[in-house]
Amino acid sequence: MDVAKEEFLREFGRDYGYPGGPKTIDEIRATEFKRLSGMAYLDHAGATLYSELQMEAIFKDLTANVYGNPHSQSDSSFATSEIVRSARQQVLDYLKASPKDYKCIFTSGATAALKLVGEAFPWSHQSSFVYTMENHNSVLGIREYALEQGAQAYAVDIEEAEHDAFTGNVASVQATKHQILTRNEAKFLDKDHTGSAYNLFAFPSECNFSGSKFCLELVKIVKEDLIRYSDGSPSLKGRWKVLIDAAKGCATEPPDLSKYPADFVVISFYKLFGYPTGLGALIVHTDAAKLLKRTYFSGGTVAASIADINYVKRREGIEELFEDGTIPFLSIASLCHGFKVLNSLTIPAISRHTSSLATYLRNILVALRHPNGTSICTIYGSRSSKTLCNEMGPVVSFNLKQPDGSWVGHREVEKLASLSGIQLRTGCFCNPGACAKYLGLTHSDLATNIEAGHVCWDDCDIINGKPTGAVRVSLGYMSTYEDIKKFIDFVATFFVSTQTYAKDVRSQFCGRSIHCADTGFENRYSASQLDLKSITVYPIKSCAGFSMDRWPLSSRGLLHDREWLLQSLTGETLTQKKVSVQHLLCLDIFLSNV
C-alpha cells in the first residue's frame, strides 16, 4: 500500500470501503465489476453501474419464471401482478412511506413522472408554480403546463433558514425571488388571491450540478407558508403541494417521507443501481393524487369504455389510473435484485463511503497550485454551515485554470480524460439555473452565448473568456480510492507542473497527496534511449497537422502543448465543425509557412 492511501485510510478508514460489511470495496470491485479493469468511471450522477452479480440474478430469475401480461387472468399474469405489488412496496419502504398514505406509480423515468405531475396538476389563474433555481430541466418543464393554464411561475434562490436551537423548529426561509413569468398579463392582473388555489413548490433533494443537498425541512416550511422573500413581496397565498426531485439524491440519501411528508417524489432506478433503464416512479400522497386530473385514457387505466359513444369508466385505483398501457413488468421484476444490492451494503454505509471519497477529492483539488502560486481549481457548490443547504452529496463540480488565471475548457478536460481511461461528464448537466448561478453567468451572458451558437453538448466551452459549463466527477457505491487517485494523477499530469504538484501539494496537504516523482519531464526522459522521428503539430482542431523533427521541452512536456488555440473575434475556438473548410485550409496553409 502506498503512503498516500495509508494517509487517506487514516482519515477516512472508518467510512470508506464498507468496514464490517458482507464485502469490502476491493472484493466488490474484483467480483462484481470486472469490466472496469483499468477504467475510472466517474459519472454516477449520469448513470450508475449495474453489478455483474445483479445481472446474473436477474437473468436467472427471468429464465426460471414465466411472467405474463398483468392485464389478464392466467397464472403467469397473477405471478406478474404479485411481483409488481412487491416492487411497489419495496419502493415505498425505501422512502419510509406508509402504504396507507402513499402510492407508487411506475413511469418510464423520473422525467415522465415529473411530466405526469405537470399535466395533471389542478392549475388555475390563481395558481403559482415556484421552483428553486437549482433544478433539472425536467422540473423547469412543468412551468409550461402552469403558464398554459394562466398560472404564474417564480424561480427562487433559497438563501438561509433560521433554526430554533431549543425547539428544533424552522422559523422561516429567506429567498430571492426571480422574474415573474406569465403568459397572460390581463389574467395575472385580475388574480384575486383568495387562497383557494393549489400551488406547487418543487426542489431537488440534491443538486445534480453541484451536489448541494437541500434541507427536507423545506417541505414543512412551504406547507406552513413560512417563506419570506428578500424583495419584500408578500408570500403567495393558497394551498401548497410540494414536489421533491430525488432522482439524484435518492442513491445515497432517499427522502424520509415519514418525517417530511412531501406530496410528490420522483425517482429513477438506473440512478440507484444501474439497471433497468427506462423505468422510474412517482411516489404520490393519496390526498394529492385525488387532485390530479387525467384527460387521456388507455388500456389498463379504464374499467370500461364504448367505442362509438363518448363513454368511459375509469379505474379507481391510483396506480391503475395513471399507468398507461401495459407497464414494463419484466423491468419491474428486476428491481428486487437491485434493491438487494443496496440493502446488503445499507444506504448509510453507501453515503459514508461516497462522501469520504468526494471530501478527499475536494481537499486535494483545493490544495493544487500552479508554480506562480495561483489556484488551479474552482469548486462549485461549497456552502457555509449556516445556510439551508449545508451538506454535500458525492459530486465534485469544478473548472480548472491556467497559471495566468484563464480557464481550461471543460470539453478539453473531458476529451483528455477519456483518452486516459476516465469517464466523467462536463457541461451544465441539464441544470441551467445552477450552471448560471455558480458560473456567474448573467442573462446577457447567456443570450450572447446562444447568439454565438452555443447549445447543450457542443464544444463551445469558453466564450468571451468565461466557461459555459463545468467538469463533474460523481461517485457511486462501487467507486474506489484508486478511481480518485487515477483522476488526481490525470489532473497533475496534464494541468499542473509535476514539480509543483509533488512538492507544494505535499506540504500544503500534510502528505495526503498522490506521490509523484520530484524530477521534471526533461530529467526523467533525457537519459532514456528514445529516438524521436517526428512530431506532428495540429494548430487547428480537426484539420491536418504539419511535421517537425524537433520541439523544445518544458517541465510539463512539449513546450506550449495545449497552451494555445485559434479563436474567432467573438472568442469562439475555431474547429472544422464551426468554420468553413475553405477558411480553415487558408489558415492551415498560412500557419504551415510561418
From TrEMBL:
Domain Aminotransferase class V: 41-158, 241-487
Pfam families in alphabetical order: Aminotran_5, MOSC_N
Annotated ranges, domain Molybdenum cofactor sulfurase middle: 531-578
Entries under InterPro entries matching the protein: Aminotrans_V_dom, MOCOS_middle, PyrdxlP-dep_Trfase, PyrdxlP-dep_Trfase_major, PyrdxlP-dep_Trfase_small
Protein name: Molybdenum cofactor sulfurase
Natural source organism: Cucumis sativus (Cucumber)
Lineage per the UniProt record: Eukaryota, Viridiplantae, Streptophyta, Embryophyta, Tracheophyta
